[in-house]
Write a structure and sequence with these properties.
Blueprint (H helix, E strand, L loop, with lengths): L11 H11 L1 E8 L2 E11 L4 E7 L12 E13 L12 E15 L2 H16 L14 H8 L2 E16 L6 H13 L3 H10 L2
Antiparallel strand pairs: 1-2, 1-4, 2-3, 3-6, 4-5, 5-6
Helix pairs in contact: 4-5
Organism: Novosphingobium ginsenosidimutans
Protein name: FMN-binding negative transcriptional regulator
InterPro entries: Split_barrel_FMN-bd (IPR012349), TR_PAI2-type (IPR007396)
Amino acid sequence: MHPNPQFRHDDRALLETLIEEIGFGMVFAATPDGPRLAHTPLVSTGDGALQFHIARGNGLAKHLDGATVLAVINGPDGYVSPRWYADQGQVPTWNYVSLELEGRVRRMDSDGLLGHLEALSAREEARLAGEPWTMDKSPPDYIRRLMAGIIGFELEILGWRETLKLSQNKPAEERERVAAGLEASGSAAIAALMRNLAG
């Protein structure tokens, strides 16, 4: 988390939207085997918890139940060139969006894992054109066999730490110059957030 308080945005609905829109992140933990992480889809329960699943063989899997972990969701980002500022005496930086969620993890039972997988696939299928895929379209034995290879977890979120670094520490006209530069260089998503959230 960036230390500058200008880069905070404590709107919980916005942070929940980041989780749902990005939908993928990393889970980190210190383990007896050293620091470990897993890359995983993430689903917010909407009531202060985050669900995820990882492969049973992942080096983190045996350490998660009962552990305190950090989940990280990275949003849009982009390099900021000093040439975009009116004052050319600036230095390069990076604008970005990141959300860190700290909390305790518990292992889900098989019903919880199935519910998580159904919610995850429903969320992602709703983003696609055409008739959505649902789990009942695959043979139940096949689903059970695949589920045996993964473990579901729920993270009780105890700490939300967001960074929305969108040039809030610059005057409005400089922010617009940076947003235009980012947009022209192919970083339209971070430029749009600068215009919508940092003004």
